[in-house]
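HUMAN: Now follow token order:
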Amino acid sequence: MRFGDANKLSLLDLAYRAATNNKKFFSNGIGDKVYLESLFALVDDISCPAPVEINFGKTQKYFGIEMTEGTFISPQNKILPAESRVAHLKVILPENHSKGTPVVLHMAGTGDIGFKRREVFLAIPLAKQGIGSIILESPYYGLRKPHGQEGMYILEASDLFKMVHANFEEGRSIIDFFKDKFKTLGVTGFSMGGQTSMMIGFNHPSVKALIPCVAPHSPIPVFLEETLKDSIDWHALELDLIAEGISPTEYLARFFSVSDMTTFPRIHVPPSREIIAATGDAYVPKRSSEQISIALENTPITWLNGGHVSTLVLESAIVREKIKTAMLRAKNLYT
């Protein structure tokens, strides 16, 4: 963050940063360097989505809505800690749903632990408007949090990449599972979840709508330039990189470049798109949001007067409307 710009940034973003800045990401250092080096080859050769079998629990019905929780073995379980290998999701649908009901997959952002935020602010109100939702919990969070990790503070840098990698493959497998059950599928997400939603949307032909919200085009501005850089244990990373003779910033930037949305591999761009960004975002700078527009074939941006955190908390009605617009547009394109 540039301190001279503080008055232009969301006070809620700055307060949230101050409240959560007592712990650090990557306190155990770099982690799995062999895995990190493998990322370049993995991105160059993205395979078809792995099939998964989702085991559903009992469906709960109330006020015209159906809620069902489910689990499946992550297609990336071999790279994840034992506690993260079982994926957890929640499906929230209108009670009168059919194959024609549009359904959107909600990917989690950094620190989005559990289902509650996406359930309360987005999925339940959307179901009351005829839009179904699937909410996936990220590995390393909530029910999938490894022992020894405190809250959202991932212990090793490589774990962040494994989280995103697993989210990408789990999301594509979920879309694949539901593609014959619902005609119109979309993907959305906040922050990191918005970036992951683009990765999924680019690489599954059944994704017809894409709605990234306050998403960066790359992790570089978020983790290395803006607010979150103050929440990284740089000393632990430096100790792990003495032999390499490279700074932690240079090291991380090399691997973060793999998930730059302007260059990330794609088989298509979903035809129905909405982008939401915030004018006072202390995490994602304006230029990064503009790169998202370029990556999505110059899709216009809806700019909200506020910050990163307030977009979901205070502007959820606008976010829901944009999700609904994109989903119904996609439905009309294919009926």
